[in-house]
Amino acid sequence: MIRAGLLLAAGASRRFGVDDKLLAMLRGRPLIAHAAQAMRLASLDRRIAVITDPRLVSHLDDFLIVRVHPGTQSDSLRAGIEAAGTPDRLLIALADMPFVTAIHLDHVRAACRDDRPAASCAGETVMPPACFPACWLPRLAALTGDRGAGALIRALPAEALVPADGLLADIDTVADLLDSEGAARPDRPPRIW
């Protein structure tokens, strides 16, 4: 079985300001380094990162780098799927979610079946990371716009959902940066994918 990981790191960081949020420091490392390290430690055969900012490359050792022009989330997703080839499982994570662990990524991958994906959840909110079997990759590639794969995972059965309370905080603005202990801001609900 071929297990590939896809790290989506090509967002425009519009709400963060003029700087690329993935290079913002969090606990002594750039934001992207946290998500990349979790994916490196997960049980995957290969790793792909889709980026727009060439400055991210130095934080993505052991990843196949796919550079794209700024576009929609579905554009990045399609580029990553194309680069992945034909894996049996494609685990998708977002680079602005620094607290997702390798253990959680492995649990999501393990919950994926040949006939259905698996995803993370925080309470009743279904979101990435998510893992898709090979037969679902054409559905992913057919997505358009800036909504990602949310519509494909929203109605998954309970056994396909991996709880991850406290791990799914994402960074969209400077105010979203977490304190030095890494505790999520309690006043901010997780983003819906």
Report the principal-axis shape. Answer: globular
Task: Give the SSE string.
Answer: EEEHEEHEHEEHHE
Low-confidence stretches: 178-193
CATH architecture identity:
Alpha-Beta Complex
The averaged pLDDT comes out at: 86
Characterization of this structure:
The chain has 193 residues and is an alpha/beta fold. It has one domain: Spore Coat Polysaccharide Biosynthesis Protein SpsA, Chain A, CATH 3.90.550.10. 22% of the residues lie in helices and 23% in strands. The protein is built from five helices and nine strands. The protein has helices at residues 31-41, 73-84, 102-111, 137-141, 150-153, and strands spanning 3-9, 25-26, 29-30, 46-51, 64-67, 89-94, 118-122, 125-133, 161-163. Strand 2 (25-26) and strand 3 (29-30) form a beta hairpin. The chain starts with a strand and ends in a 30-residue tail after the last strand.
Topology:
Layout (H helix, E strand, L loop, with lengths): L2 E7 L15 E2 L2 E2 H11 L4 E6 L12 E4 L5 H12 L4 E6 L7 H10 L6 E5 L2 E9 L3 H5 L8 H4 L7 E3 L30
Parallel strand pairs: 1-4, 1-6, 4-5, 7-9
Antiparallel strand pairs: 2-3, 6-8, 7-8
Structure keywords:
193 residues; alpha/beta; Spore Coat Polysaccharide Biosynthesis Protein SpsA, Chain A; two-stranded antiparallel sheet; globular; disordered C terminus
In short:
With 193 residues, this protein is an alpha/beta fold. It contains 5 helices and 9 strands; from the N terminus they run βββαββαβαββααβ.
